[in-house]
Amino acid sequence: MIEQLFPVAAAGALAAAAWSDFRTFRISNIWPSVLILFFGGFWLLGAEVSDPLSHLAHFGIALVVGMVLFALKWIGGGDAKLYAAVALWFPLSSGPALVFATTMAGLVLAIFYVLTRRWVAKEKRKDRRIAYGVAIAFGAVLCWLLYPTAAPKPMDVNEMGYGTFKLD
């Protein structure tokens, strides 16, 4: 029962990371760490994670790709770590869906930045950074909503092999 709170808490951590990135263009290491810890708690308390190695592989690949993109100065280090932490919540087979959802959220965010640039102070107009943590957060939520089978689910007590459990 308590494991059902972990996805909600993860969404809250994602919202906090997105807000932090939007306000300061920085994502504290605490937010990816919290997402990883929440996934660990979610899994250890009985959530149905079909293939834990697939989730870990998705995390590892996302982290390596993110670090390469960071080295190329295409994204920030916080964005790379946040995306990898989000990727942990999805199996490797859902990787393309997560990339697509995050990319679409990033496209909407970029269009928003372009359209609102005229209302921003002149000294800030030269700043071409985009708070991509916002796109990562929206992409993750979008992926959870559009592909509900992609995210792990709390396990039904009756499916755990301990007989039938009923509350009367």
Automatic annotation (TrEMBL):
<dbReference type="GO" id="GO:0004190">
    <property type="term" value="F:aspartic-type endopeptidase activity"/>
</dbReference>
<dbReference type="Pfam" id="PF01478">
    <property type="entry name" value="Peptidase_A24"/>
</dbReference>
<feature type="transmembrane region" description="Helical">
    <location>
        <begin position="130"/>
        <end position="147"/>
    </location>
</feature>
<keyword id="KW-1133">Transmembrane helix</keyword>
<keyword id="KW-0812">Transmembrane</keyword>
<feature type="transmembrane region" description="Helical">
    <location>
        <begin position="95"/>
        <end position="115"/>
    </location>
</feature>
<dbReference type="InterPro" id="IPR000045">
    <property type="entry name" value="Prepilin_IV_endopep_pep"/>
</dbReference>
<feature type="domain" description="Prepilin type IV endopeptidase peptidase">
    <location>
        <begin position="10"/>
        <end position="111"/>
    </location>
</feature>
<keyword id="KW-0472">Membrane</keyword>
<protein>
    <submittedName>
        <fullName>Peptidase A24</fullName>
    </submittedName>
</protein>
<feature type="transmembrane region" description="Helical">
    <location>
        <begin position="56"/>
        <end position="75"/>
    </location>
</feature>
<feature type="transmembrane region" description="Helical">
    <location>
        <begin position="30"/>
        <end position="49"/>
    </location>
</feature>
<dbReference type="GO" id="GO:0016020">
    <property type="term" value="C:membrane"/>
</dbReference>
